[in-house]
Amino acid sequence: MHSPLLSLPLVLLLSSCTWADFLGPSYPVPADLSSNQSLVAESWKNVTSILQAYISDGDQRVTSEETEQIKNLTFSLGMFSLNDPAATELQFHYTSPEIVNSLNGTHHVDQDSIYRIASLTKVFTVLAGLLNLNDTY
Known about the structure:
The protein has helices at 4-18, 39-55, 64-71, 97-100, 120-132; strands spanning 75-78, 91-94. The protein is mainly alpha-helical.
């Protein structure tokens, strides 16, 4: 029969490994998202310029049908950080012509618009899984 005192250090060691994630992230918090030196700001400019090219028919890589589908969407993209208040400037809003010309509701979306949609994070999670996993999963 072994003594419970001998297994106590092992239990403490295992529990400290288990509880390590509750102490916080092991990587630094992003603090500089919006400056010109930030890769996030550079990527944001790239994404928004591509979206603007799709919307304004400036991108020849997409068909007119794909362009029309994008033009019929009203959407907002925004980024924020508790550690970089200037990151709230990283926003892109697009109001489709259908919404602009509608009789009811809003005619222009911005950072204060409220969208009546379901949780999209689940859709993106499933899509990412489908793209990264094969049929056996």
